[in-house]
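Our example pasted here:


***
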Amino acid sequence: MGTFEIVDKPKGCNPIPSIFTYKLKTGNHCQIIKYKARLCARGDLQLPSEYHKTFAPTSRFTAIRVLIAIATQMNLSLMHWDIKG
């Protein structure tokens, strides 16, 4: 499916271990609708000297409103993703 690409580890790099978590999405009558898997980094094993390397991008509400206004003016459709975390 091309989701992951196997690459060589850079020299001097100590990668954080990761684990897969699995979840079943079920319907109203407990029938299985979807199998879900997520690759999670073990952040609890991160070295204190590497804390500054984390980044979580956020946007201001005014920027989102401008984006919606431009899309409306140009008759474009917008898509969104819900990210829980």
Notes: The helical segments are 61-73.
